[in-house]
């Protein structure tokens, strides 16, 4: 599941970039809720049971929520033709993404 979470996460980061290049249409409503995606459901269930006491899991949960909100904000900025804000949020997503992947790797190492 941790490898799948990394892949899902990288796919969303890529989708945001595709949107910013004008190659993909996205809807903020489809990404805003961090608990409805595969990783969010795993975090609330099996992930919490297995890793919930680990600091990396707690960091990853917070980063995951921040990532979803930043994706939604980037989509909204893009639709509002606010390229500057959308680019700033894309940079934020890059940073959040790196931190999330580091947490997921740490969880894998401890699995």
Distance between the termini: 11 Å
Structural class from helices and strands?
A: mainly alpha
**Could you say which overall geometry the principal axes of the C-alpha atoms support?**
elongated
Helical run tally: 5
Give, in order, the helices and strands: HHHHH
Estimate the mean pLDDT confidence: 93
Helix content: over 70%
Count of DSSP strands: 0
Radius of gyration: 14 Å
- Largest β-sheet summary: none
Uncertain segments are: none
Percentage beta strand = under 5%
Q: Top keywords for this entry?
A:
mainly alpha, 111 residues, 0% strand, 5 helices, 77% helix, single chain
Task: Please tell me about this protein's structure.
The protein has 111 residues and is mainly alpha-helical. 77% of the residues lie in helices and 0% in strands. The chain has 5 helices and no strands. It has helices spanning 2-20, 38-44, 46-51, 55-79, 83-110. The longest helix has 28 residues, at 83-110. It starts with a helix and ends with a helix.
Layout of helices and strands:
Layout: H1 2-20, H2 38-44, H3 46-51, H4 55-79, H5 83-110
Summarize the structure.
With 111 residues, the chain is mainly α.
